[in-house]
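Q: A reviewer asked whether we had any structural model of the full assembly, not just the individual parts. We don't, so I'm hoping you can provide one. Inputs are below.
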Amino acid sequence: MRATIEFEECLKDSPRFRQFVSKEESDIEHLEHRLEKIIKLCNVAVDSGKEYIKNQSAFAMSLWDLQQHFLDNKNAHNALGKLIHCFQEMNKFHTILLDQASRTVLKNLSVFVKDDVNQVKDYKGHFLKVSEGFDNALIKNSQASKNRPQEVQEAANILSASKSCFQHTALDYVNYITLVQARKVPSILSTLLDYYQACVTYYHQGFDLCNDFDEFFKNISEDLNALRGDYQQLEKAMQNRHMSVNRYCDSNTNSSSNKVEGYLFKKKSKGFKTWCRRWFYLSDNQLVYRKRSNEDSFSVMEEDLRICSVRPVNEGDRRFCFEVISPTKSHILQADSADMLSLWISALQHSIGAAIQHDSTHHSTRPQSTNTPNELPAKRRIHWEEFLKIPGNAQCCDCRGQDPRWASINLGITLCIECSGVHRSLGVHYSKVRSLTLDAWETENVKVMMELGNEVVNRIYEARIPDDCELKQPTEQCEIGVREAWIKAKYVERRFVCGMPKPQELLASETAEVLSIDSDGILPAEASGTGKRATLSLGGTRKWTVKRLRRRRQQRPLPKTLSDEPSIYNTAKTGDELEDEDDDDESINIPSMSLSISRDDLLTIGDELALDSYVTPGILGSDQETTDGESDAEIAEELPFSQLDANLLLYQASAVHNLPVMCMAFALGADKLWKNQQDRQRSFLHQAVISGSVMACEYLLLNGAAIDAVDEQGYTALHISTAKGHIAQVYLLLKHKAAYDLASSDGKKALDIAVDLKNADIVTLLRLTRLNDEIGQNDEYNGEDETYKDVMKDFSNCQPRMLRQRNDSNTLESQRSSLTNSD
Amino acid sequence: MGAREDEYDYLFKVVLIGDSGVGKSNLLSRFTRNEFNLESKSTIGVEFATRSIEVDGKTIKAQIWDTAGQERYRAITSAYYRGAVGALLVYDIAKHLTYENVERWLRELRDHADQNIVIMLVGNKSDLRHLRAVPTDEAKLFAERNGLSFIETSALDSTNVETAFQNILTEIYRIVSQKQIRDPPEGDVIRPSNVEPIDVKPTVTADVRKQCCQ
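A: Here is a predicted structure for the entire assembly that you could use as a starting point for your response.
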């Protein structure tokens, strides 16, 4: 402790005393300042603590609001309630702590400063006054004159009184100072100790609280683990679901489920063809969509799926598009991925199929589109049963199963569903599978089908099945593995394909066994023809050719020779083939027989593939084919056998659009990219284009011929078809994305040729295609212009009639007849 | 999407129709390229050109289909008109026959085009004052009766060419932008235009136009 001064020194009022007093005064002053600072800071701390608690309780209140959100989850609601309770308790404790702080620190220290320190200060004033009075008394006493004893006496009295008073006061002052100095340590320390105690209490309460809830929250964290487990399971389930989507995709053809829904981009048909995203689903044989926003309204896109068909759209710039087609409408939709596209298409097709089967009466009376003007022109629907009338087509081409419902459009055959699955798995470069009943058929594909058929194709692809063949021919009921092995051997390895026609063998066999691969199926007339030929060919067959193929038509009583017809008229007619027209096509058999008989040194390849004529369905009447040059020779150029190979055979067959022989040449391994070095580097497609046949082009394109191949003059098939004015071929080539901007060696593009020839239709087709591509490039949201498609459809639709119009100058009667004379 | 120079807010398809030789192609080349060719050949099939203009701060790209006037150079398709929101029906003020045929072209539009298509009657070659065969007032009256806008232009000296295209595009814009507010992209039933020939009554068109001009 601090040394106090001797009372004697006080009484003497010595300089030491004075020094002591001033030192103590400054010491107390210093203490006071420190304490005031502490009080101030403590106040700040308490205030900010209160602010903190206020916010903290607001936070807890907000948790209450959150709890309301979990009203439906009892566990969460409960746990949250407990947590909130804890937080609120903690807040309460904190409030108490702050209260204690203000009560102990603030109050005690303030009291100390106010009472004790101020007391000393107050007394200091008093002491100074008394000291001054004592000093005055001393001065007065010293000034008292010796000559005035009364005055001396008076001064002495005052001095003695003052002195006594001063001495008492000085002692008191020292007393106060000493006491304050002595008390400051205990009172400050005890105050802080109290605050410390308050803190201890605060933490202790908190600890107790946590203890109380310990059990509960342990349970909660266990629950949380369980919930996390649930979540992981859920997550897995989500993955599983994704897998099931894939599975669904794969197995969809057989799946009985027709539940599919999701977002698709829908192309607006009107105005500006923008794409919008809508939620689509199938409901009650209807295709329905709605917006993503939560309005409850929805729109019906197709009211009756039974009259609809679905097909993928590859023409546009956008990927994953497909088209839903009904007799009156067409909608372009876009899926998000190839998977989704196939899912949607198969789901829709399945739904359509299911709806049709469900109501088989509707099925049989399904409107045939040709008589409704609203029908989408290019996808004229053929009644699928017509396909089965083609020879051989009533049974699956591979397993001979009854009533096939599928087709391979590039092979020209019909298939049962199981075999179609195997075909699909071969890849589209081998087989392009379509549904007879569900898909919309392009006219040119129908024509390819009509030209070939199972019987013709099997005469080629199943010409030579060895007796000891290790592969079993599949049957309707056989296992999938048998089918797979057979179909692969038949179309990919081409193991059973007929051999290349050879004159020696023909001579040696003296029958049609080699060339007429399946002579059993040949008509009596045909058989006699081949027999005759065989006999006649004993003289030595040195040359071969391919016969121009006429479309198989119902035989007419009065066949005319085509060469008598004016060629331009002929073009229109063959392209048109309206039923009521005076038909000039004869059956294939008659000219072929006469040819084979007439020349003993000439082998007409393909005769053995010719079939009995049969009644072609009305669908062919709508084809746009222009078989220009029908007045040309009935057969292709005669060539020596030394030059006979698959490529040249295909080349020659393309020139006379003889699809069965083309099929045979492909089966014999013709190279799709081959060009004829002997003949201006022309490709098969050039030949087909020159022949004027649409179906031959389509057949080549379906089987992978290079569409933009150029001949030695730099002409593509598009150049040539343009130069020849074959609108339908131009249309077909553009549909298959032929390059229209290639310039030939003399710098001409197809458009230049069309303009030179003033062919309005081809000019329009070419310009419009380019415009459409430009739009597609520039505007990712517009994709393929619908107007473009409309126009293209018009071309495939109006072709025959318009051709006739143009070619027959006297009858310029048209829908725009009113305008014909306007200028 | 970067800032492509080709960006636009609206794409309007507009067809140019009218008799052969009235100057459709030159109207188009004047508008899109500021060119004029006295010896231009007959249009074969159809030609396309585009130009963008600004209306109300929106970029409108006009895709103009210039069709052949001569029947033998017209393609078979009626889809010329499909998706077209505007048509400039052009005649030659110096050839009365081209004006007489306007009615036929109108019928063609009614048969094949959208019923709401905005049609502007354009009397071209207004520079041939001394050869005028169609009085302005007569054409104007005809246009009013049929609910068409009307303007006389000269592709040769550029008179009113810009205005004609500006006016029709603005009018289309007014209708389209109003329509978009009225019915959001919903419920579109695709109807090939040849399904039910819709008789365009002039009054209907007039009503629409009144609305849009408010």
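A: Points you may want to mention in the reply: The domain at 10-172 of chain B is CATH 3.40.50.300 (Rossmann fold). Chain B has six helices and six strands.
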